[in-house]
C-alpha cells in the first residue's frame, strides 16, 4: 500500500480511532493537511512529520491548495509508503483526500482510507437529531435540499458565512432558524441559535459548522419543488375539485391566454409583469403534466427528461466534441439534428397549424427559403406585392377577395423577413401604436367637450395629427 489516507476526527483527541493512532505511530512518514487542528498536538508520531500549511499562503483559492497538497502526497509516495492525515473523516467535506485518491488511481498507486469521526457525526450527536435524513454540505460548494435538515461545514471565516447566508436566502426566509456549532468536537463546544439573516454577525473558525433545519413543503416557495408540491396537492385526492376536473382540452385556452399575456409583458418592457406571467405560464405546464399523470399517459419527470436530453443532444458543441463558432452554425447544426431525429416528408412539417397566421407564414416561408425556394433579392417580392394589390383591387366579393387579400399578406411577410422584421411583432407594434394614439384622440376630444361620433373626417384627422405630434 503506497498511500494511507487517515482521518484525525473533529478535534477531540479522544475521538481518534485506534487504527489511525497505530498508523501514525507506525514509523511511516506523515503529511498533515494542516497542523492547525486540536488533535495534532496530542498525537504520537513514529516517523517524520510534515504539513501543507505553507500552501495556503501561496494559493488564491482552496481548490489550488487541495490540488497542490495531493501532488505533494503523491510525490512522497514515489519514494515509498506515506500517510496523509486530514481533519475529520477523509471522505466527508475533505476535498483534498478526494484529489489524492484521484491522482493515486491515475498513477497506479494503491490507496486506503482510514475512517475518522466527522464533524457531521459530532454535530448530529450535539443537536440530538436523527442522522438518517441529514445532508452534509460544503459551504464553498453548496448543494442543498431544503426539505431535509443540513449540516454545513467549511464555514471557517466570517466572509464564508456571509456568502453562505446570501446563498441560503435564495431559498429560505430571512427569519428561518439556524444553529451555529462553535468549536465543534472540543471542550469549548457550544451551540448558538439565531435567524438566518444574522448568520454572519459573529466570527467563525475552522471548527465551526452551521445546522439548517428543513423547510416544510408549503414554505418552500422560492424553489420549483415547492410549486410542484402545491400543484400535486391541488390535483391529489384531497385537493381542489376544480383542478381535478381539468383536462388538456379544458386547460387549452388558459395556456394560450397565459402565453399571450407573457408576450404582452415582454412587449411593454415590464419586468414585474413578465415575472408574474411566466409564473402563470409555468403553472399551465404543471397542470397539463398533472392531468397526464392522472390519465396515466406521462409524468412531469418525463417532460423534464425529454427536454433536458434534447438540449444536450442538440448542443454537441457544448456537451460533446462538435465545434460551432457562430449562432448561424449552431442553427444549421440544430436543424440537421432535428431532421435526423424526426425525418419529415416535407420541410414544412412541424410548423404548427395553430400558430398565429403571420407567425406561421413567416415560419413556412423561412423554411422554403432554406432550400432556395425564394426570389434572389427584395425586388422580386416588391414587384409581387404590386401585382397582388392589383389583383385584390380587381377581385370580386366573397372568397375571391379573401384569397387575394391573403396573397397580399403572404407577400408582405416575405418582405418583412427579408428586412429582418418579425411580421407578427411588427403588427403587434402597429396595433399598440394605434391603441396609444387613439386613446390620446379620445382624451383630447373629452377634454374639449367633443363627441367623436359627431366629428367629420377633417376634425378626426386634426385630432389624430395632434396626438401623433404629442408623442414627440
Brief description of this entry?
The chain is an alpha/beta fold.
What does this structure look like?
The model has no long low-confidence stretch (mean pLDDT 91). The protein is 52% helix and 9% strand. The strands form two sheets. Strands 3-2-4-1-5 form a five-stranded parallel sheet, sandwiched between helices. Strands 6-7-10-8-9 form a five-stranded mixed sheet, covered by helices on one side. It is elongated. The protein has 472 residues and is α/β, with parallel strands linked by helices. It is built from 18 helices and ten strands.
Give the helix/strand class. alpha/beta
Tell me the major beta sheet.
Answer: 5 strands, parallel
What form results from the Cα inertia axes?
Answer: elongated
Task: Tell me the fraction of residues in β-strands, as a range.
Answer: 5-15%
Low-confidence stretches: none
Number of helices: 18
Total number of strands? 10
Mean pLDDT, all residues? 91
Series of secondary-structure elements, N-terminal to C-terminal: EHEEHHEHEHEEHEEEHHHHHHHHHHHH
The separation of the N and C termini measures: 82 Å
Instruction: Write out the strand line-up for the largest beta sheet, numbering strands in chain order.
Output: 3-2-4-1-5
Q: Over all CA atoms, what is the radius of gyration?
A: 34 Å
- Residue share in helix: 40-55%
Topology:
Elements: E1 3-7, H1 18-24, E2 30-32, E3 49-51, H2 54-58, H3 62-77, E4 82-86, H4 95-106, E5 111-114, H5 119-127, E6 135-138, E7 150-153, H6 158-168, E8 177-182, E9 190-195, E10 209-212, H7 224-235, H8 241-245, H9 248-268, H10 271-295, H11 300-313, H12 316-319, H13 327-341, H14 357-370, H15 379-394, H16 399-418, H17 423-447, H18 457-470
Parallel strand pairs: 1-4, 1-5, 2-3, 2-4, 6-7
Antiparallel strand pairs: 7-10, 8-9, 8-10
